[in-house]
Design a protein that fits this description.
Length: about 120
Amino acid sequence: MKAFLYYDGYCHWCRREMRWLSRIKSAELTLVDVHEASVSDYQRQQMLRQLHLQYDDQSWAIGLEANVAAWGYTPLGFLWRPLLWPGIRTFANWAYQRWASRRVDRCDWIEARVNDEH
């Protein structure tokens, strides 16, 4: 099933992961920079807080599930699936949410600093 993974193209860490992912992903997965996507401002803000993956059938995977699903389009997907197993999923989701929150805070701080300098 085809899917679109929306990521923050302004985020260094995100771009780095997407470069790696783009080298080994199948053609079924399309990587989309949220900043270049045709979405509302509200949708963009939501997508910047966590990864969003949209399937052909219009269903969504968000956050940790989106990350695991995206890597499922590569030969390394089996390494990510255990993150969704009971017991592991709770901790993995907590870690992902914590990382995503810190990333957004840091990116907001950097963007504000750049805007102040100009």
